[in-house]
Amino acid sequence: MKPDDPLLRILACPLDKGPLHLVVPDTPAGKDTEEAPAEAAEALYNPRLHRRYPIIDGIPQLLPDSGRQVSDDEHEELLKRMAT
To answer: Based on the number of CB atoms within 10 Å of its own CB, is 47 exposed (0-12), middle (13-18) or buried (19 or more)?
Structure first.
């Protein structure tokens, strides 16, 4: 999914119905990372509820059970990545 994808304007969090933000991996391909694959993968993020929804094979997984609660540290990191 690309940041300018028109689909991003209509996707909403299944819990609070608010907008979601695209989070793209920030590590270059092939570079080792300490993050688990799920954290390094493309996802949609709801900063209001601190929930991250995975994008698998280009398809956003937006069922309430597919979202994962993130820690406060990960939340801060995701906010920084969203700002750039």
So the answer is: middle
More confident residue, 62 or 30: 62
Question: Secondary structure of 14-63 in the HEC alphabet?
Answer: CCCCCECEEECCCCCCCCCCCCCHHHHCCEEEECCCCEEEEEECCEECCC
pLDDT tens, position by position, 2-43 = 877 888 889 999 999 999 999 988 665 544 445 455 566 899
In whole angstroms, what is the distance from residue 29 CA to residue 66 CA? 25
At 71 the three-state DSSP class reads: coil
Cα–Cα distance, 75 to 49 (Å, whole number): 10
